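The data are quoted verbatim here:
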Amino acid sequence: MHICNLFYMHMRTTLNIDEKKYKEAVATTGVKEKTRLIHMGLDSLIQDKAMKNLASLFGKAKKAKAPRRRRIYK
């Protein structure tokens, strides 16, 4: 029998957010909950960084070989 304990850590903090940017973000996304809006922004930043890291690897693997193709014969 396996027991899995998952702990989610929540952090409370005070943020100074420019009201104009906040209103623009709410108007753009339609999300009115501040916590969800901040989470969406953080997720977007993380995804953007990951995509830039992946793009920077383009063409770097000089010894990489193309995978074998699998052909379906009828």
